[in-house]
Hints:
Elements: H1 2-25, H2 31-50, H3 55-70, H4 77-110
Helix pairs in contact: 1-2, 1-4, 2-3, 3-4
Amino acid sequence: MRSMASIVLGFESIVLALATIVMISVADVDASTALPLCLGLAVLAIVATGLLRNQVGYVLGWVVQVGAVGLGFVVPVMFVLGLAFAAFWVMAIVLGRRIDEAKAAQARAAG
Length: 111
């Protein structure tokens, strides 16, 4: 589960960092608003990726998802992008658990 979640958060951090530029240049959002919001979420996603060994990382991952969807209140297109990454996050958690359970069952059967 951890590897799938880290992939989602890693890609999301890149997209959030790039969204900063788009928000400033295309959507005419003030830089003093876009920089802390987008880059802050990007950094939080990276920190969450590093903390996925603990439950804290997953909690921070959920915070990043809520924040990414919340960016839609600043730029409405971000609702779509935020919801897409939130869906990826849920899929990573659900499928990751299934994979972990299958690996554990296989290890029990082999050992």
